Input
Amino acid sequence: MPSWVVIPGGLGEALSLPARNVLVTVSGHPSQEPPYPSGTASHRGKICENLDTSESLVSFKAWAPPHLGTILYLQSNMSAIDAWDSFKSKTPPPFGHAMLDYFPFEKSYTNLNHGSYGSIPRAVSAYCRKLDAQTESNPDRWMRKTYLPMLTAVRTRLADLLGAKPEECVLVTNASTGISTVLRNLVWEEGDVIVTFSTTYGSVLTTAQYLSDVPPHPRVSQITLTFPVTRAEVLTNFRAHLEVLPRQQGKKVVAIIDGIVSIPGLWLPWKEMVKICKELDVVSVVDAAHLVGHETGLQLSEVDPDFWTSNCHKWLYAKRPCAVLYVPLRNQHLIRSTFPTSHAYLSPAERAAYGDNKNFIEQFEWTGTIDFTPFLSVQAALDFRAWLGGEEKINAYCRDVVRRGAARLAEMLGTSRMVLSTEEDGMALNLVNVRLPLPALPASQRADVRAKIWKRMLAPEMGTFTQVFYVADFKDGEQGEGWWTRLSGQVWTEVADFEMLGKQLLKICEEVKGEVEMEAAQKGIEAAPSARTLTSPIPNPILAKLASAGVSFEVDIPVVFCPSYRRARGFKAPRAIARQIDYEEHFDVRPLQLAVSNSNLAVMRKLLDIHGPTQAAAEVYNKEFTSSWSPLEMAAANGDLEAVRLLANASLLRECTNPDIAQDILGHALIEGSGAPPAEGFANLRAIKLLIEEHGVNINFSLGCSTTLPASPIESAIRGNSPDSLRLLLEYDADTKMRIYPQKPRRRRIY
Output
């Protein structure tokens, strides 16, 4: 039976179809001709046939949009792989790349980060589309009658997988919601304690911290995990921490236990930890976000945690967002409300009459109008996994391929796998970590470096993505602190995928390492050892004055080149480049120039305080060598607004009455050549517009110039495409005459 999608007319010129391998035709309704209005006969018949939209959205722009109110019936002939029922009659393919046809990934994308968000098979996606069609065909019937028996069936089937009772399992959107629901329902008192780990997931940790921040302020006590560690050590440390924890009489201790640590992908002995909690009268809340579909043989009724929650959209192939929350019957009276509060909520008085546990399931069956499709997709996900061979077969392959792939990746990177445990693979499942060839860094720099890595990984040409993180909690030994990447094994991955990743990571790490070294040189931060580093003392009386004032800074010799020089020589860094060169080539490096190039604002302030702007103009600025840059020029070229604020104590063009000089400055805004109209030729139109607004400079002509001589600060701002720096330069008034323009006259050609 063909599936039909009704699309109202008048939606604009383009109709986009994001589905993959969809054959689309426009034809009549199965029972009647589409009710086209008069005058729209041109829309009858086929618009497009055998349309493959596997790589990108396809827009139909060759045909005029129909009149408002027109209805087009699009028959979607899904391929056999997409059709929900078709896969059951087929033999499943071998694991590896043959499985890619059963998942909707872009052809250019290799998913090695399944652990973060999960992946939905085509068959499950097709099932969800069927549910969507049922929902929209009669929303009242769906919401008031149809979905509830289906939800009950999902809970029953999930309970069987978890080794629990159906009446103890409810569906929530994600594990973080499950944890938050539990923690916010507990009645906290002053003196209560929440136990977390250094590896606790971020939103769970902040939830605990929030509860500690508000009355009655339960205390958070954290256990630090250092690696490598054995399962026995985890259990010993956990028990010891709980035993020595100061406890007040009658106060509760709640321990948040990870089933699998998200980062760095560590499988904890959570079942044994739950047992310890029982022995020590501690409430156990298990964050099992990664466990369903990942660890087999869960048997929750036997383990009997107080609370337990896991995502179904990560490893189980359900549609996101979907998670299960397990609350044993003995604790259901503690869950007083869902978030948001359900229609089925009962006040304490009503509970006393109705029964404590009677409305637990009902509360989670309706928390407001939502899309129930992700919850119901669990049925299709479990069917698909059973077709593939079941939980044991799936996870055996995932575990094997990720370990072999990680070993190959570590070999390519010249690093190693993370040894989480001295027991052979005793604490790793389908997540494995490999060290990246990047230097260790202080905490203040890590977020910036991770952003650089992720920016490159998310580039279209990358074709894959993996989690990148920094670990500092290592015991002394071969594994020092540093950067790591987390890899996920899945039924579609092969070792060749990790080899592809290795080539990409080698390139990324080399680029990022180079940027880190250059920025460290600019800012005076001690960088990793480099053959380009040169430390030559600079004889200058100002250094002595600085030393006497208690100021010190590195005297490496960076030379900042303007952006045009950078582009001409193929540099790709976004800011002006700092290079290490021989001392003789640099001519006369002054302390303030060093401070500017290193973005060392404290030193810059001290220099200006000691000498004042007037003396700085005479002594600090380099006036003898026109091929060197002044501090202000370097600040402008780097777009360093704070440095510009400190240095730009001159009016610049505000007192410039010579139109030739104004033209000379504007000449630097040309991209290349001459004779181009200003609207097309200037590299920084915003900067030019600002010049016109501030000074009324007439630029109704085209300019060309030689760029072999040094630029003034304002020229640098134009070259650097930094209108903010330019605006700051223009706003400052003059108290002294600094070296705003080069001291020696320069010849330029005005075209």
